[in-house]
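[Q] Does anyone have a clean structure-token version of this?
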Amino acid sequence: MTEFGDCFEVAGNLQARHPDWVLCHGIAVLSGGPLRGRRFWHAWCEYDEEIELPPPEQRPEHMRELRNPKLTMVVDHSNGHDFEGPAVIFYGIGQVSQVWRYDRTEAAIQMLRHEHWGPWVEAEDVL
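[A] Here you go.
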């Protein structure tokens, strides 16, 4: 565990087990305790989940041409958390303001280049 907790390592390992997931590093805001309101680095993974609609013939006419929409989901198992849910909820609760997204290849390149799990952007530049 580092000054950032275990989120970068946990998220990196999650992506290694789920190669289609996107590794995310971002800036969030603490919502409670003595450091409430403080911006901090965090890491998690995202993936798109397809929402299955009823067959076209069972939908109203104006919706028959719609394809199944996708909902971005967040997985955060770091620092004792067990969040798995819609990104819109995660981003709202955490007041996430900036996000850097890495597919599996780019994450591997960054890990090798920097020799650590992240973040790979200078903290002074964003906090």
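[Q] Thanks! Anything notable?
[A] The longest strand covers residues 39-50.
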